[in-house]
Amino acid sequence: TSASFAKYDEPSQAVLAIEQIVPLNLLDVSDEYFKTHEVSAEAALESARIAYIVSSQRPLVAKNLAIAYNNAVVEMVKKNAFKKAMVYAKDSRDKGLINMVGSNAALYYLKQNQFKSALDYAHYSQEKGNLEKIIYQNEGAYYFNKGRYSEAISAFQKINDRDAVRSCYVALFNNEQRKLGSMSTTDDIKNNRSVIYSMDNYAKKSGDHGLIGYVSEL
Q1: How far apart are CA 41 and CA 68, in angstroms?
Q2: pTM over cut 0.85
Q3: 3-state secondary structure 64-118
Q4: For 47-67, how does the pLDDT look when each residue is reduced to its tens digit (9 = 90+)?
């Protein structure tokens, strides 16, 4: 530090306790230092937290702390470190930051086909309803393309997509139909009885009158 004589008689001036030098040094990082050193947003946040505890200039350090939380959350989101980003966002009590983490994380995990994680983070987004619909739609399509029709049905039912659910039951019907053996005699039909019953069940759930009629003939 450097010292000089001064006359503190202006309204904006004050004589502070000696320990106030701690938050001053924590927060007063020069532009020159930033040009030659990399200071992580997390390190800056820790400094701002300590300054907030120690400083008597609460309005000033509170503003610095809010900025530090914002920078730390943004940095973690850029790194896809959403768990840590959400911790900082919640600590800040800033609804805007919580929303940002929730929305970005939901979309990130959706692209990774990690639907449970996507839904967990969508809960924190202001667009929760729209995001959940998109996630369930993509989850259903993902499982449908994988031939995991029961899981696809579960996802599509969450958003009341009846057409997609019917398509799943038609696909299940087709899977059962492939299991049919010879159908030349009455005994053949009896031997395929369990498969036919499954086909009948899926045909009715699909609502496809052509399939229902076909099974009825069997």
Answers
A1: 7
A2: no
A3: HHHHHHHHHHHHHHHCCCHHHHHHHHHHHCCHHHHHHHHHHHHHHHHHCCCHHHH
A4: 889 888 888 888 888 998 999
